[in-house]
Specification:
Number of helices: 15
Shape: globular
CATH topology of the largest domain: UDP-N-acetylmuramoyl-L-alanine:D-glutamate ligase
Oligomer: single chain
Number of domains: 3
Structural class: alpha/beta
Strand order of the largest sheet: 7-6-8-9-10-11-12-13
Helix content: 25-40%
CATH class of the largest domain: Alpha Beta
CATH superfamily of the largest domain: Mur-like, catalytic domain
Distance between the termini: 35 Å
Mean pLDDT: 93
Number of strands: 19
CATH architecture of the largest domain: 3-Layer(aba) Sandwich
Largest sheet: 8 strands, mixed
Length: 428
């Protein structure tokens, strides 16, 4: 957040239709976690699954909040009946004040890497990490330089109707959809429910770009496709794929991508297709992508203790695991996989973890399974070890990984498997 803008409480009260207290101060930031409040930040008291942000309003004021946007009337506040709706209204107003082009990316897998590739290829600011919720987008537009040529945002959904809030707020000029896969099915109900949410991005965008594998879904008219297949509108060629990078050919240009995996190659291809759609110089986009470095935790190659560790600990789903295993298979020497629980798979979770164990066994000589389904995945495989927690995995890791040359570490973010790599780094 390098661009700072200050807004008066009177203006914000008018935008959100709130009742202004007489002690509210101008705000130069927007937060919804009281622990993140710094002097001059507006605090939005949002309802949560466990508690309401209003319970932390006084703490926010004591930390120097400019005002509280919430349901309770107070002198240093803006009172609204629906803080979440007010946040959406504020974000939409901020977006309306931005004249540049907005590219929005979503998908069950690959959206963050595609967002990073798009931002790199276009040279535009983008949302940080996986900050892809309505509050995060509102804060992004708050700090976005109004004179920027464009911006790239990531849209993440884990409940029905959330994509509608996100596209209402971000008003994308170009929508990019990477994949529809069984992720967040616990909340969205089914693969079809996932598709309904994701496809709303394309419906809401003037320009539409989707991965070629999505042509089996009802894509809106005018959607163009990217991919390595013959039928893609924007077609690339994956010349070579190694476990630490790839070579791509697109539009007569061949270049090296210093990121491993088919997913990274597809992200780069999506970025080149978007650049072409937006009338940008493809040579400049290729040059920028060639200089891109891996994002921490996303198939990040690390050399530790004489081994190659593929740190893919940021998140996990069946489709993402399959892509990561494809990279591991291309690494030389003896291979192993540390796999933690894949979350939010609903009633199909056990079946998907059995499937994951079979896929791991096809590539790796040994596995270290961590978490709820560890015993299920290890069943019947002498080369597998099952542990209940990351702490147990850390204690077992050195002996388990001893004879291996390359190790993939993957699991849902909530498990914190990146701590294993910290152990490895500390031991070298």
């Amino acid at each position: 957040m390098t661009h700072t803008r200050t807004f008066s409480p009177r203006l914000i009260a008018r935008v959100v239709g709130g009742r202004l207290g007489n002690a509210a101060q101008p705000a130069r930031d927007l937060v919804w976690d009281s622990r993140a409040v710094e002097p001059g930040a507006a605090f939005v008291a949002l309802p949560g699954s466990r508690s309401h942000g209003e319970a932390y309003a006084q703490e926010a004021l004591e930390r120097g909040a400019a005002f509280v946007l919430g349901p309770v009337e107070r002198a240093q506040g803006i009172q609204v009946d629906d803080p979440y709706g007010a946040l959406i209204a504020l974000g939409r107003w901020l977006r309306t004040g931005f004249a540049g082009t907005v590219v929005a990316v979503s998908g069950s897998v690959g959206k963050t890497s595609t967002k990073e590739a798009l931002a790199r290829a276009l040279g535009w600011p983008r949302t940080d990490g996986n900050l892809n919720t309505p509050p995060a987008l509102t804060r992004f537009f708050w700090h976005l330089d109004p004179d920027a040529e464009g911006a790239v945002v990531e849209l993440g959904v884990d409940r029905p109707g959330e994509m509608e809030d996100l596209v209402t707020l971000s008003r994308p000029d170009l929508g990019v959809l990477t994949a529809i896969a069984p992720v967040h099915v616990e909340a969205l109900g089914s693969l079809e429910g996932v598709a309904r949410e994701k496809l709303r991005l394309l419906e809401a965008s003037e320009l539409r770009l989707a991965h070629e594998e999505l042509t089996g879904w009802p894509l809106p008219r005018g959607t163009l496709t990217y991919g390595f297949g013959e039928g893609a509108d924007f077609r690339g060629e994956l010349v070579e794929m190694g476990c630490e990078g790839s070579r791509l050919r697109y539009g007569g240009r061949e270049f090296t991508l210093r990121l491993p995996g088919r997913g990274a190659a597809l992200a780069a291809l999506a970025a080149l297709a978007a650049a072409e759609l937006l009338g940008r110089d493809p040579s400049e986009a290729v040059e920028r992508l060639s200089a891109q470095r891996p994002t921490p935790g996303r198939l990040e190659p690390l050399r530790r203790g004489g081994k190659l560790w593929l740190n893919d600990s940021y998140n996990a789903s069946p489709k993402a695991l399959e892509a990561a295993l494809e990279v591991l298979a291309r690494c030389p020497g003896r291979k192993g996989v540390v796999l933690g629980t894949m979350l939010e798979l609903g009633e199909e979770a056990e079946r998907w973890h059995r499937w994951a164990a079979r896929k791991v066994r096809e590539v790796a000589e040994r596995a270290l399974f961590v978490g709820e389904f560890a015993e299920t995945m290890a069943a019947g495989w002498p080369g597998a070890t099952a542990v209940a927690s990351v702490e147990e995995a850390a204690r077992a890791l050195a002996d388990w990984a001893g004879p291996l040359d390359a190790v993939l570490v993957k699991g849902s973010r909530a498990l914190g498997l990146e701590r294993l790599l910290e152990e490895v780094a500390g031991a070298r």
